[in-house]
Protein: Glycosyl hydrolases family 22 (GH22) domain-containing protein
Amino acid sequence: MKVLLVCMASYLLVVNGGDIINRCVLAKMLHQEDLDGFEGYSLPDWLCLAFVESSFNVSKVNENVDGSFDYGIFQINSHYWCNDYQSHSENFCHMDCQELLNPNLLSSIHCAKKIVSGAGGMKNW
Structure:
């Protein structure tokens, strides 16, 4: 029972210290969403991507020189993957970019799966 309570509490406290997600909590979420081994990428690959792109900051937004923006923990680009309503977007993930800033990460995870399933895999980052 204690373990269940600790797990539930850690899941509810996904975001701490601003919008920085705990690495272990992120690993658990990625594992639950079947990213370990997805398209040949291991859980450490996904954790490394999240760390390099956003330092585990789920609400990070970065403006690029071309006028597009990168959103969320995986820094998903508005030009191709989501609609920020500020510039032209292909919107291949069929979502508003603001969804990529949600601490539950499901939108970010689903879009990241779409990105790595295409040509280039993680090299798209």
